[in-house]
Amino acid sequence: xxxxxxxxxxxxxxxxxxxxxxxxxxxxxxxxxxxxxxxxxxxxxxxxxxxxxxxxxxxxxxxxxxxxxxxxxxxxxxxxxxxxxxxxxxxxxxxxxxxxxxxxxxxxxxxxxxxxxxxxxxxxxxxxxxxxxxxxxxxxxxxxxxxxxxxxxxxxxxxxxxxxxxxxxxxxxxxxxxxxxxxxxxxxxxxxxxxxxxxxxxxxxxxxxxxxxxxxxxxxxxxxxxxxxxx
Length: 231
Description:
Blueprint: H1 3-21, H2 27-43, H3 48-55, H4 61-71, H5 77-90, E1 98-107, E2 118-122, E3 127-140, E4 148-155, H6 165-179, E5 185-188, H7 195-203, E6 207-210, E7 218-220, E8 223-225, H8 227-230
Parallel strand pairs: 1-5, 5-6
Antiparallel strand pairs: 1-3, 2-3, 3-4, 7-8
Helix pairs in contact: 1-2, 2-3, 3-4, 6-7
């Protein structure tokens, strides 16, 4: 594939994405989103300075970066985008589609001035670090490698409006449950075998498969069951 074909394909993808979000945002926000999607793909980077450089506007680079920085703080934009993406992805979620929920984290080892930096557990290194927590969700069919993005949420435990990790994860699953109208099966690996996750999922009518720790038990039909018995 030559450069012209690649550019044409990228433009098609951006136009498709903007066609989905355009009815939900003002023109200035749509312009910002279009430039961000283009800039990330063109620069292969997520730093605002690199995105601004790839836009090659006829103004000082600092001005472009400042404008992008202001727009990225648009109130409610992230939540609205998550609902739009979940709604589009949910169209491809069937009754037995697997919805993989994966809590994650972003380590900001060298950051000093980023807002609300918090202490996180870096799962890849099994140690405490500085950064942000998050949760992503994708859908896939059994025996298929194709992934359908549904949701991505980041948060800080030091933010003023932070409630709890359980609250954040449940918001991800609630958004998807509503978008998919109850279709799909939630799959949660480590850390999901707790009442604060399982009970709300059951109450909202979701089906789920959650990995159970070996030192925990569940109550089923008034009987105490070990992990082996449940399996």
